[in-house]
Write a structure and sequence with these properties.
The complex is a heterodimer of chains A (283) and B (472). Chain A has 283 residues and is mostly beta strands. Chain A has four helices and 18 strands. The longest helix of chain A has 14 residues, at 18-31. The chains are: A mainly beta (283), B mainly beta (472).
Chain lengths: 283, 472
């Protein structure tokens, strides 16, 4: 997720050139494979929502972003976010976020974006969710976090940890990324994970990170597939901005710069089902 | 599926296989004999796996299938040493203008329920569209056929995937592979196809099945008691692991069909619809609990009134289309002339009588020039025409009788024609109109074609029967 809405248009164009990002990632991979790293060392739960109570999501944990933000939440996204049950509801033990094709407040689609900003924020620890993704070109589901000083310092200075984002046109692939000052948008620190002999829209998968003082580990279903360290960040002349509490965001965008707009084959409505969100304290 | 007709008759083409590979193949078969039905995933690697020497069975040569071009290439393979090589014949090849057939398991068939796709590698000597590639065609009803239409091959090896419409149905399948190819996409130039590494696989990334019947359309037809037809244009759209959608043609056995009124029309497990009484019935289907897109609404008018039985003596008749006489050699009753023809055929059999039915009609042709007909002694052309449903105001039907001239072939230069228009007043809704056209064409020694048009009227649907020349 590239949270650019407060950034106006002062991002240099070349930063979003993907070739630079790819070259950068390759370099990082080659110098930092820590095969002995364990997944899920942090075991003390600090917050969890199992979504067991039907109805509106628990307002003590979750708030909403409403509307279209600025320039489609900074990414040319096409949906209007609402807090209506048609777009976000808890039922059958799941949080269900639904992208609907409907004319609404000048947008062609509606969906929802839930966030724990001001309700639950934590520094370091383990953050994971069990999610079944939607499918089809133009779907952009994400489970991600922003730094709690977002309102004062803005993006990307606040830092962004993308635990999972997916292009609906790539049903077997998710990305995990870090964005911060000097490494953001198309120039973020990112790696994809390709599921073999399975896909993310036909069943539930656990997406998580384990985040400490000097690293963020990325895993899917217990498979550690990337580690980004303070050293990695500093080697790309970026600033490590991940020593403050972050809040969680779960959303389903339609269209936008990541997967492009839906096409004629995209089936609506589409659902993103979240079985649980669990957060563990760093030990 | 629309280009090739598969009949139950078939010829057997055997290919010779090195004795070493035969013994290897037999060894493999013994190994897996413990399963109820073999689970063998491979169909062809460097040799046919779990199949006999006579594994290739051609489509019907009487329908144009050429049995000569199937073999093994021992110099070119995607992997290993050999591949299957298929020579696609040219349109005027006397042995048949297309090649196609199946790989038949001559044993008990295989249990494929653990897999979700057939995969293989293929290439062409030129970029070409192959009419059909798939499996499940077994000449025993083909109810679990699954295949792709018009698959584009490139000149480099590429892998192709045929998703299973529903693996749970494939408990004992004998049709291991199917293909059919003509030269429609190469302007009549023959070419070669190589196929290698044919196997069933569990890919795990084929999902989001969207079944459809009648090509996903909600069609409506007018019909009659005892008419039988098959649910057509069946398939499933899948989303593949690379995110692209793919339509797989699927046999009727993969669907659960339903009728809204079993007293008006019944539908069998495999999609054969039989109309039983006057009224309206809607045919729908589902697959694995997912409703299929598309339907057929049948408005049955009750008992069909057959066209009047012809009374001319057979010796005084040259018949083009009639159950009352032996018809001459016919090339087609619908030439599907591109690009302007919209007419489709929905011919049906009722009370044992065949009837031609043209839908979306603008023009259509009959051709019978092999050989052309000497109709000099004939005095009239007879037709029976039926306009079903609400009568389109002003409907007219024009017929052009064409003599191919001294050269006997369809060239504009020396062809001569006679035109006759059946007026609105001579046509009727839901009833047969018999028309006898006096022949004025002269000479008429090499008649080879009829062209029917609606003469600019809004006649879009009619039945035709008892088309014959006679001597008064």
């Amino acid at each position: 997720m590239n949270f650019r809405n407060q950034l106006k248009s002062n991002i240099p164009q070349w930063l979003s050139f993907s070739g630079i990002a790819i070259a950068c990632v390759t370099l990082i991979m080659s110098c930092n494979p820590d095969e002995t790293q364990l997944v899920a060392q942090f075991q003390t739960i600090s917050m969890h929502d199992e979504f067991n109570d039907d109805g509106a999501p628990n307002s003590e944990i979750w708030g909403y972003d409403i509307g279209t933000g600025e320039n489609g939440w900074g990414n040319n996204e096409l949906q209007y976010y609402t807090d209506r049950a048609v777009n976000a509801v808890v039922e059958n033990g799941m949080l269900k976020i639904t992208a609907v094709k409907e004319a609404y407040e000048g947008s062609a689609y509606t969906s929802a974006r839930l966030l724990t900003k001001g309700k639950f924020e934590q520094k370091y620890g383990r953050f994971e969710a069990r999610i079944k993704l939607p499918w089809g070109k133009g779907m952009w589901p994400a489970f991600w976090m922003l730094g709690s000083d977002y309102d004062t310092v803005g993006w990307p200075q606040c830092g962004e940890i993308d635990i999972m984002e997916n292009r609906g046109s790539e049903p077997t692939v998710i990305d995990g990324s870090l964005h911060g000052p000097g490494y953001f948008a198309g120039n973020s620190l990112t790696k994809d994970f390709d599921l073999i002999n399975d896909r993310f829209d036909t069943g539930f998968h656990v997406f998580g990170i384990e985040w400490g003082q000097d690293y963020v580990n990325y895993y899917v279903d217990g498979v550690l597939y990337n580690q980004i360290t303070r050293q990695d960040v500093e080697e790309v002349k970026g600033e490590w901005v991940f020593d403050q509490p972050f809040f969680i965001i779960i959303n389903l965008a339609v269209g936008g710069n990541y997967d492009g707009p839906p096409n004629n084959a995209t089936v609506f409505p589409q659902e993103m089902l979240v079985d649980y969100v669990r957060v563990f304290a760093a030990e | 599926m629309k280009i090739f007709k598969f009949k139950s008759y078939f010829a057997i083409a055997t290919i010779t296989i090195l004795s070493t590979t035969v013994s290897c193949e037999r060894g493999f078969s013994d190994e897996i004999a413990v399963a109820k039905y073999p689970l063998t995933p491979e169909v062809f690697t460097d040799f046919p796996v779990g199949l006999t020497d006579a594994f290739f069975v051609s489509f019907d040569p009487a329908e144009g299938a050429n049995v000569n071009g199937f073999g093994i290439d021992e110099r070119d393979a995607y992997r290993g040493n050999t591949s299957i090589r298929i020579e696609v014949p040219v349109p005027n090849d006397p042995d048949g203008n297309y090649i196609g057939g199946i790989f038949l398991d001559r044993g008990n068939g295989r249990d494929l329920t653990a897999y979700d796709a057939l995969t293989f590698w293929a290439k062409g000597s030129t970029t070409a569209e192959v009419g059909l590639l798939g499996f499940g065609t077994n000449f025993q009803g083909d109810i679990y056929a699954a295949n792709l239409s018009d698959v584009t091959l490139s000149t480099a090896w590429k892998q192709y995937t045929i998703p299973f419409p529903d693996a749970s149905k494939l408990v004992q399948e004998k049709g291991m592979f199917a293909f059919a190819a003509g030269t429609q996409s190469t302007n009549g130039l023959g070419y070669s196809i190589w196929i290698d590494e044919i196997r069933f696989e569990k890919l795990g990334n084929i999902a989001q099945p969207r079944p459809y019947i009648f090509d996903g359309q909600d069609d409506t037809i007018t019909s009659f008691n005892s008419v039988e037809m098959n649910a057509s244009d069946l398939g499933v759209t899948f989303n593949l692991g690379n995110g692209s959608d793919l339509n797989v043609n699927a046999g009727g056995g993969y669907f659960n069909f339903e009728t809204s009124d079993p007293a008006v029309a019944k539908v069998s497990d495999n999609g054969t619809i039989t109309i039983l009484s006057k009224g309206t019935a809607k045919i729908t289907a589902s697959q694995n609990g997912i409703d299929a897109k598309g339907s057929l609404t049948i408005n049955s008018l009750g008992d069909f009134e057959l066209a009047p039985t012809p009374t001319q003596a057979a010796s005084d008749v040259i018949s083009i289309f009639s159950d009352a006489y032996e018809n001459v050699n016919i090339k087609f009753y619908n030439g599907y002339w591109q690009p302007w023809q919209t007419t489709t055929s929905a011919d049906f059999t009722v009370q044992g009588n065949e009837v031609l039915n043209y839908e979306n009609f603008n023009f259509v042709g009959h051709q019978f020039d092999d050989p052309t007909l000497d109709t000099t002694s004939m005095t009239h052309l007879h037709l029976d025409v039926y306009v079903p449903g609400e009568f389109p105001a002003g409907a007219k039907l024009k017929i052009t009788i064409k003599d191919f001239g001294p050269d006997g072939i369809d060239t504009a230069s020396d062809d001569i024609t006679q035109e006759y228009t059946i007026d609105t007043a001579d046509l009727a809704a839901n009833a047969w109109s018999s028309v006898d056209i006096p022949l004025t064409l002269s000479p008429r020694t090499k008649v080879g074609q009829f062209i029917f048009t609606n003469d600019g009227s809004n006649l879009t649907n009619f039945y035709l029967d008892n088309v014959y020349f006679y001597k008064q």
